[in-house]
Amino acid sequence: MPTCVYADDAYLIAAFPGVVVRTPEMWLVTVLAAQVGAYTVSLAGAPFPFNAGAEDDTADIAGGLVGLLGGQMLATVTPVGASALSLAAVGPAALTVTATGPDEGDITATLTGGGDSNAASRAFWLDRAKCGLPPCCVVTCAADYTLMHAALAAHLLFTMGNLGATGAGANDFESMRLGPASLTRGVSAWAAASPADADLAKTGAGQLFLSLRARYVMPFFCG
User: Which has the least CB within 10 A, 27, 59, 64, 163?
Assistant: First the structure.
């Protein structure tokens, strides 16, 4: 008997990176203590060091960092008070901001907004997808079971996250016309099986789930 393991969030993201919805990040960098040495703020691995001298206070260090960071294209930089600065990402990509000083605690970088914005939704659909899986005893390859779970959860996320004003999925169409261009969907190979399978076939993740499920013979019960 296989030992079936459900997919977790890390597995889901590794298999289907598109399930993550990101919004532009906001970071607050604060200079807490002034010492001689390098104060470095890094964005996406690119370092911006300010070498503080004996005469520099926290405001001077923060101002120096604002000047250095003003030349990069990943985030807009705004002074905050006397000794802090705000970084606002210009796109949804992760900034991965770090800040180091001569001693630990001299400068901090804190994510104040944005980033991964649908973790709760992923957790919800990972849980709900469990009820749509075949019995564990049928799936003789444990790796298939985990991937089936992730694929079904991803299908639900892609479908439910793509709703229009009418409540119908934006990808739920038979034909579409945009000016002189027209688009017609072909008949799904899964449509004859059941309406539920035809719905699953509308996303790549759902098609993967169907393909994995087709490897096994589904009994009415396991005993």
Answer: 163
| Structural contact between residues 218 and 157, judged by C-beta atoms closer than 8 angstroms | no
pLDDT per residue as tens digits for the range 4-57: 999 999 999 999 999 998 899 999 999 999 999 999 999 999 999 999 999 999
| Residues 207, 209, 210, 215, CA torsion sign | positive
User: Is position 44 within any domain?
Assistant: yes
Task: Indicate whether 83 and 161 sit together in one domain.
Answer: no
Tokens for 17, please give them: 């990176």
CA–CA separation, 93 and 74 (whole Å):
9
- The count of structural domains within the chain is 2
- Cα 4 → chain centroid: 26
Neighbours of 187 (CB within 10 A): 9
| Residue 176 parent element (H or E) | strand 175-178
Residue 2's SS3 state is coil
